[in-house]
Amino acid sequence: MLIHVRHRTRYHYEQPVKSIIQALRLMPRNHEGQYVRRWQIDLDHDGTLRPGEDAFGNVMHMLSLDGPIQDLCLTVEGEVDMQDTNGILRGTCERFPPQFFLRETPLTRADAAITEFARDLFGRHGGNALKTLHALLATLHLDMAFDTEPTDTSTSAADAFALKRGVCQDLSHVFIAAARVLNIPARYVGGYLMRSDEAIHQEAGHAWAEAHIPGLGWVGFDPANGICPTESHIRVGIGLDYLGAAPIRGARLGGASEKMAVEVTVADSHLDSQNGQDNQIRWQRPPETARQASQQFQA
Amino acid sequence: MAFDEMRFADGGIRPPYAEVARWLQGVTSAQLERRRAEAELFYRRGGVTFAVYGDAQGEERIIPYDIIPRILSGVEWARLKTGLEQRIRTLNHYLADIYGPREILKAGIVPEDLVWQNPAYRPEMAGLAVPHGIHIHIAGIDIVRVDGDDFYVLEDNARTPSGVSYMLGGREISIRLMPELYAAHRVAPIENYPNELLATLQSTAPRNANKDPIAVLLTPGQYNSAYYEHSFLADKMGIELVEGSDLFVRDSVVFMRTTEGPKRVDIIYRRLDDAFIDPLVFDPGSMLGVPGLFAAYAAGNVTLANAVGTGAVDDKVVYSYVPDMVRFYLGEEPILKNVPTWRCRQKDDLAYVLDHLSELVVKEVHGSGGYGMLVGPHATGADIEEFRQRLLAAPANYIAQPTLSLSTCPAFVDQGIAPRHVDLRPFVLTGADGIRIVPGGLTRVALRQGSLVVNSSQGGGTKDTWVIEDPEMPEARA
């Protein structure tokens, strides 16, 4: 299936910004079941975009812009040929052995509750890693309510698990923390999802997890949807947690306060033509990390 | 009975201390007291202070300075120097390896989890070609002696070691306050340290830098415990002392804001931990770093000294493998000894350690500065119990070592002149043009009787360290 993605991020600054620097992980790579037909990143200002790779082999562009800038629009647009692989990954870029992904991070630290939860599932599935992970997937999907309100990008797995609420990022962090407690290497994946409910316009990208099973290799798990990734999941970046795969991490000089609006459309290319027009812009608070990094440069 | 560097067990004087012993016989306690007071005044006037974390009594204080110099003979120094060079070459090989081809892991010499699970191992560095292949430009390797023959490495300190300003300050004081004693020796100079450091930094400039590369010293700011040293070194080297907000990155090149406009920066001597150097790559909440700095570094447009991720050798379990690394990378036998180390992550070692807590020193694998350690023989029963629980809860977080009877040197304390335990931190500089070590280093002294903890954060003091140049031994000179 050929999937068309358009991901637009608009910024509006209260005062003109002097300069902006961003690290972008916004470009998918090819692997089995995922072939990038075309992909481009566009800006409505003159700036430089240097392509490179990060630690995990994700494509990373460094964006530098000089102001004054009051409004900025970053558009990512492309088409990817997708095939279902039952969540099993082959031909991915691997820079580190699976054991590396046992490493704990502040966002994925398992507290006592997650540890107990994980060990309990493991015990109930006779110590079988794959069965436990599927149970983990189903349980998190059922028990954790989708809710954009209580969490943000800096919410830890432990906090989200205690709330029993969160977004795809939070569920993925909990999944990863629980898998690592059981000595199963796990990692975070950022990407795009073509939703089955035909909601073409979305306000964010998607996130899920991957775990490494001896004999099978890396396998995807999407706890927000309670399924393994399908041909609708376009994989863009991996990391130990959200921070390692974050689509945009940036800082700026000046600008005072910032407003940001994200619109993502993901659709079957053959059906997409009639849905091309923009929908209404919905401004939101910028992600926590971007806001923190920005502060130091404000007067 | 500890090895005393001045006196043999029978009371006779070891040759390097002949002049010091004679001088000590000739001075009165009142004279020594007056000199000590003058030394303290010197530090106070100079603003040479040190913040002790967790000390409720005040932000900064002066590290006590003991005016009786510590003496090393030219022969002792020559041997130590060769050992330090071997050690730092090995550690640089190891870092280039774990961030490169990973040969030592494939060979099964260092267990893989000591790399992959080590939080100081920075995946961002993997595959990165650092300028001139140097990772550790500046190391402050802690050395102890237990007898007249061997030097032991206690810690390698490959991140941002501090203390060199005390080494230089101590020398200034001893020349000023004890000119007669100083003149009676041929003391190898150390005053050239800032020049050696600058030459080292400049030699490691990126290959695309200007002919006269620009170096800066990046400090976390005035609230850092070593801020005095940062400003002191920048001043002595004649380079800018900057904070993160003084620098910016454009198109993967680092610039410094100056009154004459942006100026390109080629080398950053950074006294800022890895986690804080770039909020786009590391801790996103860091206000101290420079957004985009890591990308500039990865692009080969700036040198960071030290490189990112050098802390991977400061792990105390990794430390226990350094002798194996010397053999693996250099095919040589280690000149400096390692303190025997029980790895509590290993079952048998843990069992031994739990049975011998009252004899051993237990340290956190990632600890430093003398915080969070147990010195068994000096600990109370409650302390030992507490550590037993900690060890049982997270054995992999600890190592244990025998309680070394550190060598002693004469010190002027409340009780008069008495032996006190010491260690030595030589500063090892590695540039593209070789290794430089100014003779000696910072001697730290545990001023409390019987104490083995020399860390300044734990109430230790410092001493000037004199390496005596022997005309017969030209290699005694750095």
Mean pLDDT of chain B: 91
The largest sheet of chain A is: 7 strands, antiparallel
Class based on secondary structure composition and strand pairing of chain B: alpha+beta
Oligomer: heterodimer
Unreliable runs of chain B, pLDDT <50, ≥5 residues? 52-58, 473-478
Q: What Rg of chain B is obtained from the alpha carbons, in whole angstroms?
A: 22 Å
Number of strands of chain B: 24
Number of strands of chain A: 13
Overall CATH class of the largest domain in chain A? Alpha Beta
CATH topology of the largest domain in chain A: the name is: C8orf32 fold
Question: How many structural domains can be distinguished in the coordinates of chain B?
Answer: 2
In the CATH hierarchy, what is the architecture of the largest domain in chain A at level 2?
Answer: Roll
- Percent of residues in helices of chain B comes to 25-40%
Note the topology.
The complex is a heterodimer of chains A (299) and B (478).
Chain A: E1 2-27, E2 34-43, E3 48-53, E4 59-82, H1 112-124, H2 129-143, E5 145-146, H3 157-163, E6 165-166, H4 168-181, E7 186-193, E8 201-202, E9 206-213, E10 217-221, E11 233-239, H5 242-245, E12 248-254, E13 258-268, H6 288-295
Parallel strand pairs in A: 5-6
Antiparallel strand pairs in A: 1-4, 1-12, 1-13, 2-4, 3-4, 7-9, 7-11, 8-13, 9-10
Chain B: H1 18-26, H2 29-46, E1 50-51, E2 60-61, E3 65-72, H3 74-98, H4 103-106, H5 113-116, E4 138-140, E5 142-145, E6 151-155, H6 164-177, H7 179-183, H8 193-203, E7 215-218, H9 227-237, E8 240-242, E9 247-250, E10 253-256, E11 263-264, E12 267-270, H10 293-298, E13 303-305, H11 316-319, H12 322-330, E14 337-338, E15 342-343, H13 347-355, E16 360-364, E17 374-375, H14 381-393, E18 398-402, E19 408-413, E20 416-425, E21 427-431, E22 434-437, E23 442-445, E24 461-467
Parallel strand pairs in B: 3-24, 6-14, 7-8, 7-12, 12-13
Antiparallel strand pairs in B: 1-2, 4-21, 5-6, 9-10, 10-11, 15-18, 16-17, 16-18, 19-20, 20-23, 21-22, 23-24
